[in-house]
Amino acid sequence: MASSKRAAEEFVRRWAGKGNEEQDKHLYWIGLFQDVLGLTDALDRLKFEQPVHTKASEHQGFIDVLIPTASAIVEQKGIGHDLSKAEVRQGRPVTPAQQALAYTEGLPLSQKPRYVIASNFAEMWVYDTERDPLCKGEPLVITLADLPKNLPAIQFLAGKGQAPETIQRAVSVEAGRIMGRIHEAVAKSFESAGFDRNDETTHHAISAFCCRVMFLMFCEDEAGLIPQNAFRNYVQHFPADYLRNALRDLFEWLESALH
Q1: Within 10 A of 127 (CB to CB), how many other CB atoms are there?
Q2: Domains in the chain, ordered, with CATH?
Q3: Digitized pLDDT (tens) for each residue of the chain, 259 residues in all
Q4: What are the b/e assignments for 192-208, b being 16+ CB within 10 Å?
Q5: How far apart are CA 119 and CA 114, in angstroms?
Q6: Element (H, E) at 179
Q7: Angle at CA of residue 45, ends 44 and 49, nearest 5°
Q8: Beta strands of the chain (E only): which ranges?
Q9: Which residues of 73-91 are buried (b: 16+ CB within 10 A; e: fewer)?
Q10: Residue 24 CB partners (closer than 8 Å, separation 6+)
Q11: Total-model pTM
Q12: How many other CB atoms are found less than 10 A from the CB of residue 23?
């Protein structure tokens, strides 16, 4: 069974504002793998409370979640925990990600995970040790609320797909390509109406239009400031020969609403 946006939305509703570090991590990760990723063998993939010794302590520690099939290790914290905050563990201050990284020292070389994940149920911070061996850089942050929109970014947990940061770069590149196509289409429409696209006033008008469209797309898809597909449905509602007027009316309404 493949992952689905609907299953992800249900997962978000189930876990919004919840998450006890000890009591809920099993249900959370099993649910993420079974319901969201659609994996029927979640119990075989997820290894909870794996014992491990590290160089920093003579005492045995326990890995919250080890995912060998995804080459990933998870340090699970409770809801509301600051994942950037360093706390003393085994005699030294470490962030949750660095705590997980320390556990990897006690694993055989063939079992050392590539991905280090710090989670507090509301957020998942993903570090790729291929590019950040000490987990001190900027992680890929996947919030629970945005999970339905970020399903491609977590496919690495299923042991397939590209690295998370590669997905993130690909999304940014694709967004740039989309805006480039929109800009070119608008410029051509201006030219067909007799305007010189290289004229400063025309160039400013085209850029302003593209910025407004990009803002509405962001509000719809990323920020959640307007209902899902609201802008898309508005555009599709009008025939092509009336779309210019429809967009002008929309922009004028938005400007008046903001003042």
Answers
A1: 26
A2: 5-161 (3.90.1570), 167-258 (no CATH)
A3: 555 788 999 999 999 999 988 899 999 999 999 999 999 999 999 999 999 877 665 667 889 999 999 999 999 999 999 999 988 776 778 899 999 999 998 888 888 999 999 999 999 999 988 888 888 888 888 899 988 888 888 888 988 655 666 545 545 555 667 777 877 888 888 888 788 888 888 888 888 888 888 777 766 665 556 776 788 888 888 887 787 788 888 888 877 766 5
A4: eeebebeeeebeeebee
A5: 16
A6: helix 164-192
A7: 90
A8: 47-54, 57-67, 72-76, 87-89, 92-94, 115-119, 123-128, 140-143
A9: bbbbbbbebebeeeeebee
A10: 18, 121
A11: 0.64
A12: 10
Q: Report residue 5 CA to chain centroid gap.
A: 13
Q: Which two tokens stand for residue 118?
A: 């710090």
Give the amino acid at 1: M
Token pair for 217: 């797309």
Both structure tokens of 34? 């079974």
